[in-house]
Each structure stands twice: as structure tokens, then as C-alpha cells.
Amino acid sequence: GENVEQHPSTLSVQEGDSAVIKCTYSDSASNYFPWYKQELGKRPQLIIDIRSNVGEKKDQRIAVTLNKTAKHFSLHITETQPEDSAVYFCAAKRYNFNKFYFGSGTKLNVKP
Amino acid sequence: EPEVTQTPSHQVTQMGQEVILRCVPISNHLYFYWYRQILGQKVEFLVSFYNNEISEKSEIFDDQFSVERPDGSNFTLKIRSTKLEDSAMYFCASRFRGETQYFGPGTRLLVL
Q1: Most CB contacts within 10 A, which of A61, B49, B57, B111?
Q2: Å between A4 CA and nearest CA of chain B
Q3: Nearest CA in chain A to B101
């Protein structure tokens, strides 16, 4: 089955700096890669996703890049704000399968 | 905007007791999921449900677990004989035909 690894486990940045979180996956048939933000005690919420036919996707301060050859994808947050502080999870899913495989999470702390 | 709802928000039970966790997915969604998140750890897939049957399940989802969609709106997870290690947050999620899944707020289960 798929194995998703996520790094780093914790990330501390100064407000206004950029943050990058990386995930690798093992199953070359995975073709959908969402990123979730989970604030303390809350539900995971989708913030951005990318499909394997695209190399990059942006939404305001958030971007995701995908390297299919190397089997890794990254979340980039620019101009970080204290409200970006949360745990971020990556995930991978194979086309026509229902199961989502999650990474272990990155706790992002944005210092004001 | 429609949301996935879950009840109860918290459940405390004695080891060996049965618990039923309830979810109401978004009304036109077709795929339903249960996930588990032990405190401070990653989101773990338990089971997916489509077309009134289990489509995939993880190794965690053993004979102690079962799911049902009894009435076309509710989606339940039953744990027959709870163990201490079942203490976790349980999230329900649903999606339509696309890949985007929406999580419920979770049920925090504590087994004493």
C-alpha cells in the first residue's frame, strides 16, 4: 500500500517569513494530493489540493508543488501570519480507490 | 454551507462496553469515511463506505468495528467491546464524486 512521509514534524517561523512542508509518497499510482489544516481541537479542513496532471497550484498565499518523478509534493505558505499556526497534514489517494493515506503532520508555529 | 455533523461530541465509556458514534454526512454525498486520531498523532483511515457497503478498510478496522447507514442520512460506527487503546478522536468524512472530502467536528472517545 501507499506510504506517505511528512517533514518536518515541527516548524517555527517568524511572522512574514515563508514556510515549506514536504511530503513523499511511495505509490506511483497515487494521483490526488490534498493538504489539510487542523487547528487545535478542530476538524481537518482542506486548504489546497493538486492532481497529478498538474505541477503547481496557487491560492493566494498558499501553493502546492508536485514532482511526480521524485514522488514528492510540498506546501508553501508565504507571508505567514499567526493565524496560520496549526497542524498541517498531507495526504495521497489513488485514482478509483477510496482510501486516503495521511502524513504524520507538521505543527507550524508562526511567531508574531 | 452544508457541513458534516457528528454526535456526541464527547463520549466516556467503560472498557468492554459498546459505543455507537453517529455522523450525518452532507446530503448528496456518496462516499463516507471514518478516521481515528489518537491525541497528538496523525489521522488514520479506518473504513470507507460506498453504495451501502464497505469499499475499503484498514487493519485497525477489525471484528470489533462495524459501520452502518441505517436510514439514508445517518452513518454510524460501532465499537463492540471498547479497549483502552480505542481512546481517540473519531472523525467522519464524506465526499461527492470528486476527491474533496469534508470532515465532521469529531467525537472524542475516552475509554476508562
Answers
A1: B49
A2: 11
A3: A46
Q: Which residues of chain A neighbour B44 with C-beta distances below 8 Å?
A: 102
Burial A2-40 (b: 16+ CB within 10 A, else e): bebebeeeebebeeeeebbbbbbbebeebbbbbbbbbee
A56-74 pLDDT, tens digit each = 999 999 999 999 999 999 9
Contacts of A103 (CB under 8 A, 6+ apart): A4, A5, A6, A23, A89, A90, A91, B42
CA atoms within 13 A of residue A44's CA, in its CB half-sphere: 31
Look at residue A1 and tell me whether its pLDDT is greater than 90.
Answer: no
A54 close to B (CB below 8 A): no
Please report where in the chains the cell 457497503 appears, as a residue: B53
pLDDT of residue B99: 83
Q: Mean pLDDT over all residues of chain A?
A: 95
Amino acid of residue A47? I
Q: What is the pLDDT, as a whole number, of residue A54? A: 86
Q: What is the mean pLDDT of residues A9-19?
A: 97
CB-CB contact of B42 with A105 (8 Å): yes
Give me the residues of B, 30-69, that contact A with CB < 8 A: 31, 33, 41-45, 48, 50, 55-56, 58
